[in-house]
Design brief:
heterodimer; A: 2 domains; B: Rossmann fold; two-stranded antiparallel sheet; 10 helices; binds thiamine diphosphate; binds magnesium ion
């Protein structure tokens, strides 16, 4: 009994992705008096995903604010408040709703500092939910990260694990630039180690999750876990895959990618977003520019087909990239 | 000039309301029992609005709807087989399983889709109304949307343009008192959404959305104005949803009291209409239960049809992304 107790105490604390998000927000609201959290149903309801649960009770309605369904207004609130001394945390319930507020994001938030000759500082963080897999169909399931990574002035991170979710939220909120934190809805229940208290995960630093010799799998967000599974399955075909979790898309940790590819000589990029014009295109281009002489095979890309996200489970299953598709694409590419 | 509902019209409105109610009750069970995927936003409690407005519209008139769209499809004449099949994600569904609950549509009866984007349907209805005027038809368009949606820019831009161009549009705001879990007084500083009409230069009308006859009469005036080329109307119907925001019991949040729900349920729009039908000798208890039974049987048969019908072929995933010449 006493022994079991001891083991329990020593075991690192595990937390679900959804609770790690809450903890990250909690730490930030605690340490930054100028920070507030605003979004649709983030206060009374604790967000439709549950990740702001308890924050209203702890920080009060002055700091945790329910807004009308007015995304352009909410995003503008973030820009204007950030430019004038607050540190807003804006919750955009689904990433698909970027369509409602893209001017505030693309033409105002991303560019204001540059257009003003550096005379504005925008410490605003935006949380938003991406990803398919729940039969929520074409307007509630998208992965639109390239809408954001194409905009100079924004930082974009996409945590795959509870640890990174908390750490990246804290880093994002301590950053004096606009940072988008892209969350993933199928990962909300995912358990992982999460330390107590505040800690940062450096924005712009990738994580080598698994070392390997003859293939680099590059992924982010939930696809990291599919890539890890694929790496396991690829052993059987004599492939010893390294897996990189990008964590941050912009800025991008090109060094870690290039170093890995120079070692393994092969790369396959995995993302859930539509493959065509996806972030994988940028990664493949960088790899061939910076490591062309080291490549033993074309750089592979696994992504969703060129269609909106379908509703029917039968269609959605065939839409979403997974470990099986990663293995198949890798084998095709390497001829094994 | 108020258009009075004839007995036949009242029976027609009643039938539409019962069809919505039963479709939604069964859909709610399917969701709660895990039979259908995704999220269903159910229309129970608001039936008088869809039925009262739709009784004035023809198949050639167009409507746009919301995430809470099944009731609008049913009231516009949607068939249970294709609707349940869509909720199941089956190939026989109205959207061939691609759209599901939040995108359910039927172009043949002028139903331009539910919508996953709050406020998303309003500018589209304005565009449809523009088309009707441009093509010199006598048709109209109507957009259904919630109190929450009236805070989206899309509402304001579409309202302004509709009034400016004098478009044959009826903006039907179904004010059920909440946007998700946020009460109206916590999302806008006005009580009547209809007040917003003044800012755009169109009439704004408030009506009891639990009273099908009142909705029918008010909608009749708005539709007549639209058909006569007099421009748009904002018609606000005060109503309430009996189920939670999503599904039947939802996430179990406490954002409204049982007393409040019960008070509204005492004004159940179907019950209110049925009392009138009996009182005025237009129908009888027995005839009314026969309607309920017939519709329930139809729903059960349609659910069986949906359950038994095949899923879409995954190889067809890329079909319908673009129009292809035959
Ligand atoms: C642009 C956009 N923002 C937010 C949401 C999430 N959402 C779905 S329904 C809803 C509430 C809508 O309230 P209301 O317009 O009053 O319609 P009701 O649900 O009451 O019928 C919200 C916020 C969404 N789907 N689209
Ligand atoms: Mg509402």
């Amino acid at each position: 009994m006493a022994e079991a107790q001891l083991k329990d105490d020593q075991a690192p604390r595990k937390l679900a992705y959804v609770n790690a998000i809450t903890e990250g927000l909690h730490e930030v609201l605690k340490e930054q008096p100028e920070a507030f959290l605003a979004g649709e149903d983030v206060a009374g309801a604790g967000s439709v995903f549950g990740y702001t649960s308890g924050l209203l009770a702890e920080f009060g309605e002055h700091r945790v604010i329910d807004t009308p369904i007015s995304e352009k207004g909410i995003m503008g609130l973030g820009v204007g408040a950030a430019a004038t001394g607050c540190r807003p945390i804006i919750d955009l319930m689904f990433m698909d709703f970027l369509g409602e507020c893209m001017d505030e994001v693309a033409n105002q938030m991303a560019k204001m500092r540059y257009m003003f000759g550096g005379h504005a500082r925008l410490p605003v963080t935006v949380l938003t939910m991406s990803g398919a897999g729940m039969s929520l169909a074409a307007q509630h399931s998208q992965s639109l990260e390239v809408w954001l990574t194409h905009l100079p002035g924004l930082k974009v991170v996409a945590p795959a694990t509870p640890y990174d979710a908390k750490g990246l939220i804290i880093s994002a909120c301590r950053d004096d630039n606009p940072v988008f934190v892209l969350l993933n809805k199928l990962s909300l229940a995912l358990q992982g180690e999460v330390p107590e208290g505040a800690y940062e995960v450096e924005i712009g630093k990738a994580n080598v999750l698994r070392e390997g010799k003859n293939l680099t799998l590059i992924a982010y967000s939930r696809m990291v876990h599919e890539a890890m599974q694929a790496a396991d399955q690829l052993k059987e075909f004599g492939i010893d895959a390294e897996v990189i979790d990008l964590r941050s898309l912009s800025p991008l940790d090109t060094d870690t990618i290039v170093k890995s590819v120079k070692k393994t000589h092969r790369a396959v990029i995995v993302h859930e977003a539509v493959r065509f014009s996806g972030f994988g295109g940028e990664l493949a281009a960088q790899i061939q520019e910076l490591a062309f002489d080291y490549l033993d095979a074309p750089v592979g890309r696994v992504g969703a087909p060129f269609s909106p996200v379908p509703y029917s489970p039968s269609l959605e299953q065939s839409y979403m990239p997974n470990a099986k598709r990663i293995v198949a694409e890798t084998r095709r590419l390497l001829g094994v | 000039m108020t258009i009075q509902a004839t007995d036949a019209v009242l029976l027609d409105i009643h039938e539409r309301m019962v069809r919505i109610r039963i479709f939604e009750e069964e859909a709610g069970k399917l969701m709660e029992n895990g039979k259908v995927p995704g999220a269903l936003h159910l229309y129970v409690g608001q039936e008088a609005v869809a039925a009262g407005v739709m009784a004035h519209l023809k198949d050639t008139d167009h409507i746009t709807s919301t995430h809470r769209g099944h009731g609008h499809v049913v009231a516009k004449g949607g068939q249970f087989n294709e609707m349940y099949a869509e909720l199941y994600g089956k190939a026989a569904g109205y959207c061939k399983g691609r759209g599901g609950s939040m995108h359910i549509c039927n172009m043949e009866i002028g139903m331009l889709g539910a919508n996953g984007i709050v406020g998303g349907g309003i500018p589209i209805a304005m565009g449809a109304a523009f088309s009707k005027k441009f093509r010199k038809t006598k048709e109209v368009a109507a957009s259904f949307f919630g109190d929450g949606a009236s805070n989206e820019g899309s509402f304001h831009e579409a309202a302004n343009m509709a009034a400016l161009y004098k478009l044959p549009l009826i903006l039907v705001c179904e004010n059920n008192g909440f946007g998700e879990y946020t009460r109206q007084d916590n999302h806008q500083a006005i009580v009547d959404v209809a007040d917003r009409a003044a800012g755009y230069g169109m009439p704004g009308v408030v009506v009891d959305g639990m009273d099908a006859i009142a909705v029918f009469e008010a909608a009749g005036e708005a539709v007549a104005r639209a058909r006569n080329g007099e421009g748009p109307t904002l018609l606000e119907c005060k109503t309430y949803r009996f189920y939670d925001h999503v599904g039947v019991r939802g996430m179990g949040l406490s954002y409204r009291t049982d007393e409040e729900v019960d008070a509204w349920k005492r004004r159940d729009p179907i019950k209110l209409l049925e009392e009138k039908l009996i009182e005025q000798g237009i129908s009888t208890k027995r005839k009314i239960s026969a309607v309920h039974k017939r519709v329930r049987d139809e729903a059960m048969a349609a659910i069986k049809f949906a359950e038994d019908s095949p899923l879409p072929d995954p190889d067809g995933l890329l079909e319908d992304v673009y129009y292809e010449k035959a």
